[in-house]
Design a protein that fits this description.
4 domains; 22 helices; 0% strand; globular
């Protein structure tokens, strides 16, 4: 029996027809809510990137998603992102009626605002770990916390105001799970977390947070090369939060639009979006901004502009912005900005300086566990391979000692 339970817990099998109903009775939950059947998982939005149709559907789907991820359910971990899912989710959010509320339950734990505060505080700790050490550092721990501690709260008993606060807080925590999965380059999984977070934010009536989730989707779409879709998502975020927008949120959404437009080669539209972002950020008041957007400051906008100018081959502009993008307080963001600076120097023909800056990035990123960071290095390495000389040879010798550079697979070929 112990061996059988271990198999269930590890996701290698599901309880059979005898034990399954007993577990459902013990927990007063359905087999779908318990995630007992892999067959049921395949039919749910866990595998198919589908926007939930109701608050109860959202609770069931996100709970299944956490459980399947925790159990390393391979079809989920290897799933590809769905471009139609981005369009469907953004449209359904934009035209959604009044936010729904989950059905009242007679069973489950009693949930209060103290429980919501505990989730918020715990998620903030994980967010700091993500920022300092990368998405792959504590991703499993985040999912374990959501599955073990947060899922029972969603299935608990709470008054409508508490429910709204709970949904908003869990949406933010699920957004973090999406960012961490994205940083680990598990893109289908990340998209599914973003979709669930958006639905939870919708039912929380938290339009600002929902806009930030669409912005995260835009960021991922640009990374994946879906540039038109990325620009559309950023515009949907701007449109959807217009009545409650803050300057910093508007600036960040304009910056995401600019990032996408730069990749399409539309320089005029890209610069217009960057100008709009700059003007919006000038009017920010930190006291009126949501806490989750407080990171977006002048340094972050400079980093976004550096990405844009690098991508439209204006290397000198990219260098100037990248040099203003180091905040000193966000390790991974500083790594990205440093690598953009290295790339910009390389494109400007300053090979020696590019190599020096890239080595600075490797030192900075030594503690990061981030597949996205590896992808930035791999792109730099590919561009550097077209150049020969003493500087490149010395760079390869030093870089070969760094874990992140080793992960690019370029050590042996250097």
């Amino acid at each position: 029996m112990k061996r059988r339970i271990a198999s269930w817990e590890n996701g290698h099998s599901a309880p059979d027809d005898f034990y399954g109903p007993l577990l459902c009775d013990a927990y007063s939950m359905s087999a779908a809510e318990l995630g007992l059947s892999h067959g049921e998982l395949r039919d749910a939005a866990v595998i198919d990137a589908v926007y939930p149709t109701s608050p109860d559907d959202a609770i069931q789907t996100v709970s299944q998603l956490w459980r399947a991820d925790l159990n390393q359910y391979d079809p989920l971990l290897t799933a590809e992102p769905s471009e139609p899912a981005w369009s469907e989710a953004s449209l359904r959010w934009l035209v959604a009626p009044q936010p729904g509320i989950p059905r009242q339950r007679a069973e489950g734990v009693q949930v209060g605002l103290g429980d919501v505060a505990a989730v918020k505080t715990t998620a903030d700790v994980f967010a700091k770990l993500d920022d300092q050490f990368g998405g792959d550092h504590a991703r499993h721990s985040v999912i374990q916390y959501l599955n073990n501690d947060v899922a029972p709260l969603l299935r608990g008993r709470y008054a409508e105001p508490v429910g709204r606060a709970l949904f908003s807080t869990v949406a933010e925590a699920t957004l973090l799970a999406g960012w961490m999965s994205y940083d680990a380059c598990r893109h289908g999984l990340a998209q599914r977390y973003f979709l669930q977070a958006l639905r939870l934010a919708q039912d929380a009536n938290d339009r600002r947070l929902a806009g930030s989730i669409l912005s995260a989707m835009s960021h991922q779409a640009t990374f994946l090369g879906r540039y038109t879709q990325a620009a559309t998502l950023a515009r949907a975020a701007l449109m959807g939060i217009s009545p409650v927008a803050t300057p910093t949120l508007r600036a960040q959404f304009h910056a995401m639009e600019a990032r996408a437009l730069a990749r399409t080669g539309d320089i005029v539209a890209c610069e217009a979006a960057l100008t709009a972002a700059t003007k919006a950020l000038e009017g920010r008041n930190s006291e009126d901004e949501p806490e989750y957007i407080s990171y977006f400051d002048d340094a972050e906008l400079a980093a976004e502009a550096a990405h844009c100018f690098r991508d439209v081959n204006r290397a000198r502009h990219a260098v100037a912005h990248a040099e203003n993008a180091m905040s000193g307080s966000h390790v991974r963001s500083d790594f990205f900005a440093t690598m953009v600076l290295a790339d910009a120097h390389l494109r400007a023909g300053d090979v020696e300086e590019a190599c020096r800056v890239a080595l600075d990035a490797l030192d900075l990123g030594e503690q990061l566990k981030s597949a996205r960071c590896v992808s930035y290095l791999a792109e730099f390495g590919q561009n550097l391979s077209r150049v020969d000389g003493t500087a490149t040879q010395e760079f390869h010798q030093v870089a070969a000692e760094h874990r992140l550079w080793q992960a690019t697979g370029r050590v042996a070929s250097a």
